[in-house]
Amino acid sequence: xxxxxxxxxxxxxxxxxxxxxxxxxxxxxxxxxxxxxxxxxxxxxxxxxxxxxxxxxxxxxxxxxxxxxxxxxxxxxxxxxxxxxxxxxxxxxxxxxxxxxxxxxxxxxxxxxxxxxxxxxxxxxxxxxxxxxxxxxxxxxxxxxxxxxxxxxxxxxxxxxxxxxxxxxxxxxxxxxxxxxxxxxxxxxxxxxxxxxxxxxxxxxxxxxxxxxxxxxxxxxxxxxxxxxxxxxxxxxxxxxxxxxxxxxxxxxxxxxxxxxxxxxxxxxxxxxxxxxxxxxxxxxxxxxxxxxxxxxxxxxxxxxxxxxxxxxxxxxxxxxxxxxxxxxxxxxxxxxxxxxxxxxxxxxxxxxxxxxxxxxxxx
Length: 364
Known about the structure:
single chain; alpha+beta; 5-stranded mixed β-sheet; 11 helices; globular
């Protein structure tokens, strides 16, 4: 074979190999890079202006996340003459609230068991207990009985010398709230939800940035937070009901203690009308807060929650929840698990809603 012929054969082989590589490269899809983006429908609850009796068209309400407008699909009342969709959690932590505060707050909520059941379901959780003290239920009798039982327990502890109030230092306060976040995370996602948190607060705001993080997380997950630094003594009817329940419980001898002695069916329309008819917002009446409640307000504010330390404030807080709209919208937020600034408007007027939205959560 001549040198010229050998070179020709080698060149031809090389061209064939390059052609094969080119064909394989052409068949391989190009690599893509980018952030995962999910389009889904979700909702936020917002306090309407005035009575909110007339539900507006979706086009009248705007929702922005991180300054970007989202597509509002519909607006509806959370309560509409039937049982509502609220998911309520009552969280009792002896490290956050003294025996007197837990007693008074549990009794005050028990007095409103019928209203809470008309609005949705209630679950009672005690810090560091593996099982709920009351599984999620819509039975007002079970709700009342569970809360009255905890009120009695706290009163007995108070009689045995337990501290009336608990105001931990900042580190412990933060740790207990972080534990609360872990518990709430296991409660799923989506839907109108509110947290009733008996707490005596704390005097120091040294950890304000951490408190903002906790409030941002609560708001992003949709938990409207109602701290309860309760200080008002129960009225005669509430105290009488507690005594009646205590006598019944002592004579129950192991029988089902979930319902007490009163049984009747909730008139949802009556209860909802009563809740919406409660006038006044405690924000305008509270004035200058005591130092220990400043941290609780910082916790509640970003979630659009209210403090409740006495009967009138709790009535107003429940009315605030009962009047809310549920605003449905489509979001294309990236799934990154970080809360984003949220704003809801009716026309040019901003509505009271959570300040943050957590795009990782989905309604269900």
